[in-house]
C-alpha cells in the first residue's frame, strides 16, 4: 500500500498501549499526522504525553499496537526488521537530546559513520562528511573528539551525522533539551536554515513553545492525543 508522494512521513490511527497486568497504559490514542516534503513540524507537549513514543513509531524504531506508518510513501506495515531498517536508513535521520556520538572517533568520522556502516568507500564517506560538517559550520572542528567539543558543537555534529545520508526527513527528539537558552536558539536556527537550504523535512519534539514557533506548523501532544492547532 502506498501513500501520496507529497508526504515524507505519515501516520494513520496510531495506537500504543502497554499492558501492565490488569492496568493498560494508553500512550498513543489514535494519532494521525502528515509531514509534507520539505516541511518543518514541531511537536510540543508535557513530559509523559507520548512525544518520544510517537517519534519512535514514526522512525520505525518501535512498532505501534495498531495503526500504520508510511515513510516516503511506503507502508512499514508487515515489513521484516531488515526491510524496516532499510526504509529507515534510506529516508530518515535522527537527532536525540543527548548526542550519542562515539567518544573514540573524531567529529569527521562520527559524521561519516552512517556511510561507513553502509560499506561505502571510506574516503568518499569522509568527503561527504566534510561537506556536511561545513554546512553546520564546524569545518574547523573535524579532527576534534566529542570530549573536546562544547554541548552545542556536539549537537551540530549529531545533526551533520543525521544529514550525511541526505534523508528526506529528520526526526529530532528534544535536540536542544540539553543546551542553554542561547545555544538552543542557535541550534534551532540551524535546523531552520538546513530545512530552507536543503529542503530536508523535520519533525522536532521540543518542550520549548518559543522554538516550536520557528517551525512551519505546531502539533500538540496531550495525554496521547495529537492536536493540530490549524485543523
Ligand atoms: P514524552 O516523550 O512525551 O515525555 P514518552 O513517549 O516517553 O513521553 O512516554 C509516554 C508515556 O508512556 C509515559 O507515561 C511513560 O511512562 C509510558 N511508557 C513509555 N515506555 C513505556 C514502557 N516500555 N512500558 C510502559 N510504559 C511506558
Ligand atoms: Mg520524551
> Which sheet architecture does the biggest sheet show?
6 strands, mixed
Total DSSP E strands:
10
Counted by DSSP, the helix tally is 7
The Cα radius of gyration reads: 17 Å
In the sheet with the most strands, the strands line up as 6-7-8-3-9-10
Please write the CATH class name: Alpha Beta
Task: Give start-end ranges of low-pLDDT stretches.
Answer: none
Bound compounds, each kind once, are:
adenosine-5'-diphosphate, magnesium ion
In terms of quaternary structure, the protein is single chain
User: Which class best fits the helix and strand makeup?
Assistant: alpha/beta
Quote the distance from N terminus to C terminus. 26 Å
The portion of residues forming beta strands comes to 25-35%
Helix content: 25-40%
Shape: globular
Summary of the model, kept short:
This protein is α/β, with parallel strands linked by helices. It has one domain (7-228): P-loop containing nucleotide triphosphate hydrolases (Rossmann fold). It has helices at 51-58, 81-91, 107-117, 122-135, 151-163, 181-198, 209-212, and strands spanning 7-20, 23-36, 40-45, 66-71, 74-75, 92-95, 169-173, 201-205, 217-222, 225-228.
Molecular structure report:
The strands form two sheets. Strands 6-7-8-3-9-10 form a six-stranded mixed beta sheet, sandwiched between helices. The model has no long low-confidence stretch (mean pLDDT 93). The protein has helices at 51-58, 81-91, 107-117, 122-135, 151-163, 181-198, 209-212, and strands at 7-20, 23-36, 40-45, 66-71, 74-75, 92-95, 169-173, 201-205, 217-222, 225-228. It contains seven helices and ten strands. It is globular and about 55 Å long. It has a single domain (7-228), classed as Rossmann fold, CATH 3.40.50. 34% of the residues lie in helices and 29% in strands. The protein has 231 residues and is α/β, with parallel strands linked by helices. Adenosine-5'-diphosphate binds next to β2 and α1.
Amino acid at each position: 500500500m502506498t501513500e501520496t508522494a507529497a508526504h515524507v512521513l505519515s501516520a494513520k490511527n496510531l495506537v500504543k498501549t502497554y499492558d501492565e497486568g490488569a492496568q493498560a497504559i494508553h500512550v498513543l490514542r489514535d494519532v494521525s499526522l502528515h509531514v509534507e516534503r520539505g516541511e518543518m513540524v514541531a511537536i510540543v507537549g508535557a513530559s509523559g504525553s507520548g512525544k518520544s513514543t510517537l517519534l519512535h513509531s514514526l522512525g520505525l524504531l518501535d512498532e505501534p499496537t495498531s495503526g500504520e506508518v508510511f515513510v516516503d510513501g511506503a507502508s512499514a506495515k508487515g515489513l521484516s526488521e531488515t526491510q524496516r531498517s532499510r526504509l529507515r536508513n534510506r529516508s530518515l535521520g535522527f537527532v536525540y537530546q543527548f548526542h550519542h556520538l562515539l567518544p573514540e572517533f573524531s567529529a569527521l568520522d562520527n559524521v561519516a559513520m552512517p556511510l561507513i556502516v553502509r560499506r561505502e568507500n571510506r574516503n568518499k564517506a569522509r568527503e561527504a562528511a566534510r561537506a556536511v560538517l561545513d554546512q553546520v559550520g564546524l569545518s574547523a572542528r573535524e579532527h576534534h573528539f566529542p570530549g573536546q567539543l562544547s554541548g552545542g558543537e556536539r549537537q551540530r555534529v549529531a545533526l551533520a551525522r543525521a544529514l550525511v545520508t541526505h534523508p528526506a526527513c529528520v526526526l529530532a527528539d528534544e535536540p536542544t533539551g540539553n543546551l542553554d537558552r542561547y545555544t538552543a536558539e542557535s541550534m534551532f536556527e540551524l535546523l531552520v536554515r538546513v530545512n530552507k537550504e536543503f529542503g530536508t523535512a523535520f519533525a522536532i519534539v521540543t518542550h520549548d513553545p518559543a522554538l516550536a514557533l520557528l517551525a512551519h506548523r505546531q502539533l500538540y501532544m496531550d495525554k496521547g492525543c495529537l492536536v493540530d492547532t490549524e485543523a
